[in-house]
Design a protein that fits this description.
Blueprint: E1 10-15, E2 26-30, E3 48-51, E4 57-61, E5 74-79, E6 94-99
Antiparallel strand pairs: 1-4, 2-5, 3-4, 5-6
Length: about 100
């Protein structure tokens, strides 16, 4: 998945066990999933995650926010919620793939 600095970004096709029955959880962009020292502040702290009904398929969007992060390779990390607060970086331990 690729996002361009200065542009809005969204994509779909995120799949994984439990995503559909947890309302998509919350996504964060880190250099390493679950690592408190790895937070990438230029990205919004969380992403709006939308679940496509009756599938294991999730669409992710930053909405109208234009991204300002420098070019690089990041990790898209998932916190499954709702049983987890998704308030700390360590809650985002599931690696959902690379984001360039």
């Amino acid at each position: 998945r690729t996002c361009v600095s200065g542009q809005t970004c969204s994509f779909d096709g995120i799949t994984g066990p439990g995503m559909a029955d947890r309302n998509g959880g919350v996504f964060a962009v880190l250099s390493t999933c679950g690592d408190a020292a790895a937070w990438k502040p230029p990205f919004p702290a969380d992403l709006t995650a939308q679940v496509v009904t009756n599938t294991e398929h999730v669409a992710v969007s930053w909405g109208s926010v234009r991204l300002t992060a420098a070019a690089g390779q990041y990790r898209l990390c998932w916190c499954p919620g709702p049983d987890i607060s998704c308030a700390m970086e360590a809650d985002f331990a599931t690696d959902a793939g690379r984001l360039d």
